[in-house]
Every structure is written in C-alpha cells, then in structure tokens.
Amino acid sequence: MTNIELPTYRVIRTNEVFGRRSKLSDNPNVPFELTELVSLKKFKVPSQEEIIRFIQESAREFDIKPLGKVELFDPNPLADYLSSLPSEEVKNIANGQDESLEHLKEHSLETTLQRGKVYLDVSNMLIKSNDLDSFPKEGPLGNLPNNWSLRFKLSKEEKLPDRLELDYLIDRGVKVSDVFTAKGDFEDYEMVANQIRILSNTLSPSNRIAQVRDESINRLEEEASLTLGQLYQCTASKESIGGIIGELSAIVQQAFKNMNQENPMGSTGNYFDSGGDPSRN
C-alpha cells in the first residue's frame, strides 16, 4: 500500500506529519519563514472494562516487597500511582477482588467521546522553517503549539464519515458535531472546510486511515493512570481524615481517662488544656 500524501503538503514524517509554507511568511511583520505542520493520529477510546483489565495486568507485573513498597520494572505514571497505594490494595486489584475493582470503577473518568469508538485527530501547528532540520524523526513531537485541530469519529470500519454528510455540515459552517469537531485559532472557516475536503479525498479511498499512527495504547495507559490517580487521591484523603479522627479520639479518651483518675468528684477544670490537672488552668 502506498504511503499517505496530502495535496499541497510535503512529507515530514511518513504517514504522520506533513508540512507546507505558511502564508504568514509573506507578512512583512514576520521576521522569519514559517511552516504549517499537519499531524495525524488515531486512537480508540477504551471501555471501562478495558481500563480496569489493563490496571489489573499492570498490578500483576509488580514485585510487592515485604515492606509494602511496590515497584515496576519500567517507570511510568501508572507505576508511580501503584507505588503510592497500599500494597494490600494493589494485591486486591491484581487478584480481582470485587470490592477493589468496584472502587476502581467509581473513579473511572467521564469523557465526551464515545467509548469503544475510534477517532482521528488532526493537529495544525506552526514552526520556524529552519527548525525542520532538527525535527524529530520519530517518537513524540514535543511541546509544539497546536494552533487548531480537527477530530473525526470514524465508522466501525475505521473510515472517515461519508462525504455527503461532511459536505452537509461544512455548508452550514458546523464546528462541533458528533461527526467532527473543529477547535482552536483558525483564520476562517474556509480553512477548516478545505482541510476536511483534502483529508476526505486522500484518506477515504483504499482505507488509507489504516496507515495512520495508532496511539490507542497511549490513550489506554493515560486513562488507566488518571483512574489510579483519582483512586490514590481518594485513598490518601480517607487516610488523612482517618488520622485526624484517630488523633481526636485519642485526645478525648485521654481527657476522660484523666477526668476519672484525677477528678473523680467531677471538677469543671478543662482537661483538654491542662492535661487532666485543673489546678494548671
């Protein structure tokens, strides 16, 4: 299958990043030449079951130490959160204990995207043309500013929406719909419309989307990490509240103990301030 080629763009990274000279370069107030970049990626929004299963599998990979410290061979945010949880809780998750898994589900993230569906993300960025020489050949793109973006919900066959449906929405200037969403700082809507047409003409035939970089695993890891992060915050909050309640309970118990031991006749002295000795008030 031939690689993806976008009309008017040149290939920067095969099937992933494309570039062309920006019209802003003609502006006399711009002191350097700019290049417009378009980055393509697709991802599946994981189901709650997939997230929980992934967390379970990650927990099973951990080597639980006698002192309760949990470590993962390859450091990542998921490992950081697992390391912060009580070792017994990690064991319960790994073993599929119903109560622990239900607690995890309670902290699953809400999303406006449809779980189980695949989306195509199209990011539009501006960089100095001279920076293309040092542009990464693979891996993350880094902190490049995203000027504006498009997101399409793909069909079950992972294809772009029907062209007639796209044209219908474009003709009405739609920016947000269940079919696609356009966000960010674009000069005018015609820029959005033109890019949608280019993508439809290029990616629809022969299912070229199959060649687009798939970041589903990254999405799964991110959602799993955020779910564990919320679980950790809940656990830490309960431990903090439990600690405060425990301290208050100990103070109250000691006060009554002092009262019974040192003031059996029921003095009105403040035992909380005086440690049980009203003569110190």
Verbal overview:
- This protein has 281 residues and is α+β, with helices and mostly antiparallel strands.
- It has helices spanning 48-60, 77-84, 87-94, 98-106, 163-171, 189-203, 216-262, 271-274, and strands at residues 10-13, 17-21, 34-44, 63-64, 70-71, 118-128, 146-153, 180-184.
- The strands form 2 sheets. It has a 6-stranded antiparallel β-sheet, covered by helices on one side. A two-stranded antiparallel sheet has the order 4-5.
- Helix 1 (48-60) crosses helix 3 and helix 5 packs antiparallel against helix 6.
- It starts with 9 loop residues before the first strand and ends in a 7-residue tail after the last helix.
- 19% of the residues are buried.
